[in-house]
Amino acid sequence: MFFAREFVRNMENPCEIQCVANQDAKELAQYIKPFDTVLFILPLYIHAMPGILMDFIEFLEPTKDKSKSMGFIVQAGFIETSQERFLKAYFEGLTARLNYRYLGTVAKGEAAGIYMYPKMFKKVFRQLNRLGVEFERNHAFDRDIVKKMEKPYKLSKPMLILLTIVDKFGLANIGWHKKLKENNAFDKRLEKPFL
Known about the structure:
- The structure is a single chain.
- By secondary structure, the chain is α/β, with parallel strands linked by helices.
- It folds into two domains: 2-154, Flavodoxin domain (Rossmann fold); 156-195, no CATH class.
- The chain has eight helices and three strands, in the order ααβαβαβαααα.
- It has helices spanning 2-8, 25-31, 51-57, 85-97, 122-138, 143-149, 157-168, 174-182, and strands spanning 37-43, 69-75, 101-108.
- A three-stranded parallel β-sheet has the order 1-2-3, covered by helices on one side.
């Protein structure tokens, strides 16, 4: 929802936002049929989309109107946006099966804690604002903004070494540990309930 709100924030005529999780999937699929453009903004769950969205997609019907378009914006916790490549391929095929014009898939990594620490994501929000404004203007995702948002595609070797050191000393978990303590769950952080 953070991504959706920021995407439409500076538009002159903001896109309508619907939350798939809060609605009947079949009814929502019928509701969006007349729209000429549909954008999905979703979190990435380990190379895949949330099950709620998959359920919704099952109700989408192919269109005969060749002027309809579909695009995707993916928010992921992984740093590298190469993680989204599997989803991009699926979305491109999905739009073809539904007879929509594929507008592309925008991926933004490093955003796992956006709901906990929104102030840390001001740069990302500015990028989303600009992406939305340009989308409204041109009915397309601005390539320069997309390239900036999708960095890094792959981590460099020096960055991997640095992250390994940070992880070894537990510095990467400071924010998460704070949240676990606030919710009285810190002592349970290493439990393995499914083993």
